[in-house]
Structures are given as C-alpha cells and as structure tokens.
Amino acid sequence: MVPVDRAGDIRLATSSGRWLVSACVLGSGVALLDGTVVNVALPAIERGLGGGLSGLQWVLDAYLLTLGSLLLLGGSLGDRYGRRRVFLVGLVGFTLASASCGLAPTVPLLIAARTVQGVAGALLVPGSLALLSAGFHPDDRGRAVGAWSGLASVATAVGPFAGGWLVDAASWRWVFLVNVPLASVAFWVTVRHVPESRNDDEVGGLDVLGAVAVTVGLAGVVLALIEGPRALLPAGALAAAAVVGFVGLVSFPFIEQRADEPLVPLGIFSNRQFTGANLTTFTVYAGLGAALFLLGIELQEVLGYSALQAGSSLLPVTLLMLALSGRTGALAQRIGPRAPMSVGPIVAGAGLALLSRVGPSSSYLTGVLPGVVVFGLGLAGVVAPLTGAVLAAVDDHRIGVGSGINNAVARVAGLLAVAVLPALAGIDTRATGPAGAASFDGGYNRAMASAAALCCAGGVVAFLTVRRSRPVHPTTQPALTHGCGWCDPVA
After folding, report:
1. pLDDT tens-digit readout, 30-63
2. C-alpha span between 119 and 66 (Å, rounded)
3. Could you please report the per-residue DSSP string of 295-338?
4. For residue 477, what are the β-bridge partners?
5. What is the maximal distance between C-alpha atoms in the chain?
6. What is the DSSP string of 221-247?
7. What does the H/E/C string look like for 62-102?
C-alpha cells in the first residue's frame, strides 16, 4: 500500500507518476467510455431484449440520471472520506454493475444495472481528477492533468468503433462486459500504486438532502416524459411522478441556500459569464446528446448500417476534434472565448440541420458525411473555449466546484434531451420492429432539427453573456470532462 504522506509529492516523470496517471485514466475511462459505446449498441439491445424506443431511452437516461445528479456529491465524498478509498468503491461498483448489464435477461434489469453504473461513475469521474490534483507535485500537476485528459479523450473517442466491432463480432453484451477487466486492472493499480489523500478542512455535513432532491426531481420528471406518451402507466402514477419531480427540482435551490456545504453554492451564479457558459453548455450538450442518440438509431434501423459502420461514420468528428481543439483553445486565449463560443455552436447546429435530412435513400458521401464534417468543425470550435470560459469565470479556490457544476449540467442536458425530443417529434415510443423503424424515421427529421436549434441557441446565449476578452486560467487548473467521447479536453 502506498503511504499517505507521498500525496502531493509525486513527479510525473517517475514510475509512481505514470502509475497514478494510468489508474486515473483507466478508472475514469471506463465511465466515460460508456457514454459512447452504448449509443452504437442500442438497436442490437432492442432486437435482443425488446422494449421499444422508450426502453432504449431508459438504457441511456438511467445512467445519465444518477451520474449527473450525484457527480458533485461523489467529489465531496472523496474529499471527506479519502479520495483513493471512494475511487476504489466506485471501481468495485462499476465492475459489478457492468457485469450485471452484460448478463441482464430483460430490459428492466438492464436499466436497474445502468442506474447502479451511474452511481459508481459519479464516484470515478470526479475522483480521478481529484487524485491527480492531490497526488502530483504542483510543478507537474498541469502536465499530469493534460496527459490524463488527452488519454481519456483517446479512450472515449474509440468507443463508437470498439462498440460497433464488439456488437458485430460478438454481442451487445460485450459492450458492458469489456468494462470488467479494465476496471479490475484499474483497481489493482490503485491499490498498489496510488496514495490516499483527503481534505482535512471539511467540517460541515454532507449535502445529502440536496443530492436526494435533485435526483428524485430529475427521476420524476424523466419518468413522466418518457412513459407519458406510452400510456402504459396509470395517469395518476404519471401525474404523481411529475409532481414529485417538480417539487424536488424547485426545492433544490432552497435546500442549497440553507446547507452548510452545498453541492451547488448558488452565489457562484452571480457571475454573468459563469451562468452564461453553463446555459451554453446546457443547450449545446442537449442538442449533442439527442443527436448522438437519434443518429445511431437512424443509421442502423433505417439506413441498414451495421453497428461498426454506424460507429465508423462519425470518425470525421473525432479527427477534427483531435486536430483543431488545441488550436481553438489557443485562439480563445488570445481573443477571448466569446467569438468562438458564439460561432462554434451555430456551425455545429448547421451540421445537425444537414444530418436532419438523412433518410432511407441517403448515401454516406452525399447524405451523411457533409453534416458530420460541419458538425465536427463546430464542435471543435466550441469545446476548448467553453472550458476556458468556465474556469476564467470563477475564483481559484472555486475551480473544482465550477468545473463540477459544468460537468453535471452537461450530463443533465443530455438526459433531458433524450427524454423530451423523441416525444416532441411525434415518434411512437411504443412501436417495435418495422413499425417502430417507420415511426422513428418519420420523427427523426423533426427531432434532429430541434437538436440543431438547441445548438444554435447556445451560440446566441454565449454572444449575449460571455465577455469579449479575458485570459483563461493556466493549464494547472482541472480540466472539464463531459464524457461524450469528443468533448473532453485534448492535451
């Protein structure tokens, strides 16, 4: 076991430093990987277990629900009880939940296992960055975070291809089972090579009530949104879920005002740029989350792509992000984040608008590729400046809180978009088989157009709220990881 007193003194060039980065990349990588591989596997899951579109919505949203609502609590638990200890608990939970997902015989059991996966992921994602920040010497901390974010980005970027290959070569179940050996290796490395650390200044109580309020609130609202159109639950039960969800969300800010150690210190939103950057995050990642969900199903169920072909079709986005994110980040440091954050979402929205025209007769070169390229260009233009804008809007001692809030906003945005847009577009979530594919194709265009509008709205919000020019914090500050596979910072 690594002694506690080594925390904060590790150098990146040493074997201890390499082991620490490896553990954090593996641990957070399995959680972030699930944000990309599952989209490609959704049609195969539906063919294997049934459940229709609403079942697929829950397979995604059950994970995003607990992950997004518990991220901040997960970070607080690590600070209080030991970051290494909480990280190990998350690895054990994620391993067991992944095995349960891969072995699930029914959709309800798969959804239940995905819920547990999200809880474990909420311990892993903030825990990995906290271990890096606490373990490395201050002179190496920035480079360590950069190495971690770059490697995590590569790991999540290969998700669609790896997921597609696993689905086609073996089974959708291996999309989940592959996490088991990866998380097991991360557990072994953490036990052997990662030092313990905690924040001894933590004095207030955990904001458990706030975590319960936001989780129950989101769960009630999402239940009503997904199950309402199917009309399979009694109207009274749906109404009760909606009311409970509404009460939970409305009560959350009042709970935070009274909490000793709030998950979300509301005073941080008095900064106009921080609020604007998070509104931009919400609209852009709502459009992104819905688009990835919709496009994967359209390509496989309507155009007849294999899982590997569907994953490979998005390769240009990955390449553009890897090639351009660093350049746009440097540009934002010189001219300020306002211009790229205003233009990038609108370009991304234009790409989604082009993708909204994809239909049964579309070819890849003329129907899919142009939209993918334009979307990738817009995404590459906004992600790094958005990160810088959030970090520049908060004081140094609130960097961790600010990045955690922004991360949670991104997850919740995707959660709500996946729940809302299919119903608004008129897609019959009850239909399965050929009828389900026909219904999906009929509403796909409208849903993708709505996703495009959300991205464009993010650009407008950024133009109105983000300052024209202000230097961002140096790279020694924590990075933001949104877990979409492309939007993690690239070193």
Report:
1. 887 776 778 889 999 999 998 888 888 899 889 9
2. 5
3. HHHIIIIIS---HHHHHHTTHHHHHHHHHHHHHHHHHHHHH-SH
4. none
5. 63
6. HHHHHHHTTTT-S-HHHHHHHHHHHHH
7. HHHHHHHHHHHHHHHHHHHHCHHHHHHHHHHHHHHHHHHHH
Q: What whole-number distance in Å separates Cα of residue 221 and Cα of residue 207?
A: 22
Q: At residue 152, does pLDDT exceed 80?
A: no
Q: How many degrees, rounded to 5, is the angle at CA 431 between CA 427 and CA 434? A: 100
* Secondary structure (3-state) at 10: strand
Classify burial at 260, counting beta carbons within 10 Å of its beta carbon; exposed 0-12, middle 13-18, buried 19 or more.
exposed
Contact 260, 205 (CB under 8 A): yes
Please state, as a whole number, how many other Cβ atoms lie within 10 Å of the Cβ of residue 106.
12
With H, G, I as helix, E, B as strand and everything else as coil, classify residue 195. coil
167-192: buried (b, 16+ CB within 10 Å) or exposed (e) per residue? bbeeebbbbbbbbbebbebbbebbee
Question: From CA 127, how far away is CA 124, in angstroms rounded?
Answer: 5
Q: C-alpha angle with apex 123: 122 to 129, nearest 5 degrees?
A: 100
Residues 6+ apart with CB under 8 A from 77: 86, 123, 206
| pLDDT tens, position by position, 181-219 | 999 999 999 999 888 887 666 656 788 898 899 889 988
Copy the structure tokens of residue 280: 């931009």
- Provide the token pair at 363: 């070819």
Answer yes or no: are the C-beta atoms of 144 and 132 closer than 8 Å: yes
pLDDT digits (tens, 9 = 90+) for 407-462: 888 888 988 998 889 888 888 766 666 666 677 877 899 999 999 999 999 999 99
Give CA–CA dist 395/392, Å, rounded: 8
The SS3 assignment for 386 reads: helix
Neighbours of 214 (CB within 10 A): 27
Give the SS3 label for residue 180: helix
The Cα-based distances of 204 to 24, 73, 256, 261, 396 in angstroms read 28, 13, 13, 6, 21
From residue 386, alpha-carbon distances to 251, 288, 322, 325, 381 in Å are: 29, 15, 16, 11, 9
What are 110's two structure tokens? 């798969």
Single-letter residue type at 112: A
Q: Is 425 in a helix, a strand, or coil?
A: coil
Give CA–CA dist 80/90, Å, rounded: 15
Instruction: Judge whether residue 124 has pLDDT over 50.
Output: yes
Buried b (16+ CB within 10 A) or exposed e, 115-125: bbbbbbbbbbb
E-strand ranges in 155-259 read none
Q: Is 270 exposed, middle or buried (0-12, 13-18, 19+ CB in 10 A)?
A: exposed
Q: How many helices (H) and strands (E) does the chain have?
A: 17, 0
Structure tokens that stand for 173 in this block: 């179940």
Handedness of CA 329, 331, 335, 340 (dihedral sign): negative
